[in-house]
Every structure is written in structure tokens, then in C-alpha cells.
Please model this.
Amino acid sequence: MKSLRNLLQEAQQNKRAIGHFNISDLVLVKAVFSAARDLNVPVLVGLSEGEREFVGTRQIAAFIRALRDEFDYPIYLNADHTHSLAKGVETAKAGFDSIVFDLSALPFEENIRQTKQAVEALKSINPAMLVEGEIGDIGSGSEIHDKAPDLAKGLSSPEEAKHFVESTGVDILAPAVGNMHGMLKSMVAGETKKHLQIDRIAAIKQATGVFLTLHGGSGTEDADFVRAIPAGINIIHINTELRVAWRRGVEEGLAKNPDEVVPYKILPPAVDRVKEVVASRLRLFNGEQHFAHAK
Ligand SMILES: [Zn+2]
Model:
């Protein structure tokens, strides 16, 4: 199996981005894996600290490894938004392929100091693990928000991005480029979309030369994703859209079978709804034209 670093290099050359989808139960794992296999594209699954607490850090690592081995399939595992070295060490020991070490809430120089320490500590446990650092402010929580946050103050500049990358040695950077975690109600309703600052992405790529992750991709205008990838985005996170689809699918399954108690008879609509979202995002991130004839 190709390393995640090699996969990202290859995707970058081919102007594709790797889709990153958060998972916290079997419905989500099944939906993501099945959508990726139908399209035959690599995929990254991730769990935040809260999601790992629910599922089990070593347990999900064993599960994803089993899928990867049995199907000889390029599915990779990311420790999403990890806020302490102790939590990061757990994932390095469990064999995660990458980690989002997120101290973006701290003052900038403190973020640099602690992220640098984390890069050294995590790579001493697993030299192949890719470490992502975060700068700027894109809000927290992949949830539905009532009110739009003010993103303007937290945007990342190419200068601070370069300083951060050079000082910490991170492999991947998550900048603030107009993206935000979660979705507004109007986005869930399909009335509004997020827009990305493509020139800022290109300038940060130019200044840093590292892989870039776009967090909070849910609800973004399709055309903005398409332009963000050649500008330098290598990984795109989608979480809230999956959570919305999961909830609608569970409700649909329950409504269809009011007297049913068998989980595997209730949950298939949830798998289907999530899978539709994942498939549409993967087609976009991997170049829609390649899938003209795919299901
Ligand atoms: Zn995120």
C-alpha cells in the first residue's frame, strides 16, 4: 500500500484532492467506504477527539486496517482535531496515518512552540505519520449554526503560514481561507453557500510549499472546490453534510418501519443518504469528467 505522503504527491500532480470524511459509527464507515470503492478513488476517514472517544481509538484503527488489508484498498485514517500531545500519542501508537494537531486557539507563538514539540514527539513514535498544523480561526464544531461568524479577522496570511511551517516542520497546513466549520441553517436548506479565497490559497501554497487541507468544506460552492484544488488544496474535509444526511436517513428509516426494531433493517436509508453525499463530493474532488460513465 502506498504511503499517505506518496498518495498526496500523486494526487497533487494529477490536480486531485483527497476527500476526508468524519466517521463515528458503522453507518458512516459503510457509506464512505462503499462510495469510494464504487468510484475507485482513495479516501481518508477521520475522527476528532470526541468521535474517537465514542468509537475507540485502537478499535477504529483495527477496523480500518481490516478494510484496507482485506480489500487491498487505499483507505487512510486521520486523527482529526487533536488538542493535546497525550491524545496525539494515543493515535500515533494506534497506527493512524496522519493527525491534525490543532492548537489554533492558542496565541500564534505558543501554537508554534507546542506544534513543533508535537511533530518531534509523534514522529519519534511513528516516522511515517503526517502531522498537520492549524493557523487562523475557522470556528469550531461541525454543527448547524444560527448565525454566521466573522471570518475576516481569523484569515491566514502567506507570511504567517510560511513562518509557521518553517518553525514547526509540519507536513500539512490547515489555513483559514474563507472556510469555516459547521453550516448555517440557510446552507442546510441550500439557500446559501460558502465561498473560498482562491488567491489566498495560491499565495499560501507558494509561500509554504506544503500540502494544504481545507477544513469545514460542507456547504461550499462546487465551483470554489474545483478552483481550490489546482490553487493548492490537497485534502478536503466534509463532516456536517454527512451528519445532516445521517440524521435524515435515520429518520427516514424509522418513519418507513414504525414497528421495526432490527437495526440493520432500519439503518440502510441512512447508509444510502450519506453515501450519496460522499459520492458527489468524491466525484468533484477527483475531477468530475473522470466519472461521466460511472454510476
Ligand atoms: Zn476541521
